[in-house]
Design brief:
There is one protein chain. By secondary structure, the protein is α/β, with parallel strands linked by helices. The protein has a single domain, classed as 3-Layer(aba) Sandwich (Rossmann fold). The protein has 8 helices and 7 strands. The chain has a 7-stranded parallel beta sheet with strand order 3-2-1-4-5-6-7, sandwiched between helices. β1, α1 and β2 form a beta-alpha-beta unit. It is globular.
């Protein structure tokens, strides 16, 4: 799997709803690999926690990526500043609002589309695999989110590569934290920064076993 620091060094990565545990792992890991992270979250306390991970490489904005109006304002302010990777963590950060998540992810993506185009950037949606006790509504919403990447890429006529990282909990009573973090970051590096000629990282899905929150 692709995961060398050179793949991300100097790149601009926007992580939406980054206040969840996977967001902290990704922000820390991608910043450690040399990326410049702009982390969005509605909670000021979680923004501070993110910034403390790497003050020189992680910038935070107190923005709720579930609010269309806020997404539109962010897009206006961002303009065509290049974005190399946009990571959506709303499915993990707002598990009780999955219906709204399916609208919020495209809304933020379209708001930042000029920046994605300027940077030839990609989009990565991070979703959770429903547990054995999940109800029908959650299973249906999660399945819909799994298909968002395909539909969004179709709407951009393939110009914005969009992929999905699915996280499944379980498998081990107490999974090794370092191994879990490495798996999540490595998967994100591959889906976000594998060589442009790799057609297999457009509309692709990877699943890793880890704790979601």
């Amino acid at each position: 799997m692709c995961g060398a620091a050179g793949d991300v060094a100097g790149k601009t990565i926007v992580a939406a709803a980054a206040g969840c545990s996977a967001g902290l792992v990704l922000a820390d890991g991608l910043a450690g690999a040399g990326g410049r992270i702009v982390a969005l979250d509605r909670d000021a306390g979680r923004c501070h926690a993110l910034a403390r991970l790497s003050p020189e490489r992680i910038e935070t904005l107190a923005v709720d990526p579930m609010q269309p109006a806020g997404c539109a304002r962010l897009g206006q302010l961002w303009g065509n500043t290049p974005i190399d990777l946009l990571i959506h963590l709303q499915p993990l950060r707002a598990p009780d609002r999955l219906g709204a998540v399916t609208s919020a992810i495209p809304a933020l993506t379209w708001a930042l589309l000029p920046g994605l185009r300027a940077g030839s950037g990609r989009v990565l949606i991070v979703n959770a695999v429903p547990g054995s006790g999940a109800g029908a509504a959650e299973r249906a919403c999660r399945l819909g989110i799994d298909h968002l990447a395909e539909f969004m890429q179709h709407e951009t006529e393939g110009r914005i590569a969009t992929n999905t990282l699915r996280i499944v909990s379980g498998g081990e009573p107490e999974p090794d934290a370092r191994r879990v973090q490495s798996a999540i970051v490595s998967a994100a590096l591959f889906l976000g920064f594998a060589a442009p000629g790799s057609r297999g990282v457009q509309g692709s899905t990877l699943t890793v076993c880890a704790a979601c929150d």
